[in-house]
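Notebook, p. 212. Picked up where the previous page left off. The plan for this session was modest: take the two constructs that came back from the sequencing core last week, fold each one, and keep the raw output in the notebook itself so nobody has to go hunting through shared drives later. Recording the first one now, exactly as returned: residue sequence, then the structure token string.
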Amino acid sequence: MTQTNDLTKPSIHPIALWKLMSLGAVIALALIIIFLIPTPPNHSYPKYWMVRPLIIVPFAGAMGGLCFYILDFLRIQGGWKKIVANVLSFFICLVGLWLGFVLGLDGTLWD
């Protein structure tokens, strides 16, 4: 009896999880930087108030990449399930990014 190894069997995930999470974090970081650069200094804010949004918003973007990765099981089935997975991923990522902006800017620009 011969044993076989399925080590060469392709994964359902065409892109690695860390790549998708990194991509989501970089996109979110770019958006929050674009949003924060034109902000005039306000002396009523804490000294390091920009650190919080620069941490929370990329984390929310990384969670969006995780959501995209998790929904790959629908995406590979094709047809209408692929469309549903893409639309669902987009809206979940969008809501997560918005919540990241709200949490990151709460108490400063989001009053």
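Okay, moving on. Second construct, recorded in the same format:
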Amino acid sequence: MNTLQSTILHTERLLLREMTPETYNKVMSQFMDSEIKTFFGMKTNEELELEKLRHQQGMTMSGKSFLYFHLVEKSNNQVLGWCGYHTWFKLHRRAEIGYVLNDDAYKRKGYMKEAIPEVIRYGFEVMHLNRIEALVSPDNKPSLKLINHNGFTREGLLREHYMSKNKLDDSIIFSLLLREYQK
């Protein structure tokens, strides 16, 4: 498989492999389909085709970027999901944190609880963020618990904010500021 130079963060059980627009473009343009699936931890060709479509449509635009980390289990090199900043406004020093596990089998094992503090630290100390935002469904109890556990402050409710399963759902907006993190 092709190799990439990227930042690797370490937690007890995980390697957090950095994904930037540059590495993303290199993977999508230089890797074979089987390598792309392995790199992202994809199981199906449908997932691959969806990722190719995202790449063709562009993942960045002027003033906005992303930086996330693949969660790679140290014991078997399996990609479990990702955690990072899918919406990063560099000029304003703020980003929205997001996270996904690729399979239900990885849930309730503490992987995100382990990864998120390191990703938050990276956001403030390396990316020089002043504000990290999180948008969470009021019905997503595990995510609400994670965000609260990491010191985020609830700011309000965004009504009918996103489409999920052909239904408009609300989001609770949370933030964590640099000065709060430093305390």
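Notes on construct two before I forget. Residues 111-125 form the longest helix (15 residues).
Flagging for discussion at group meeting.
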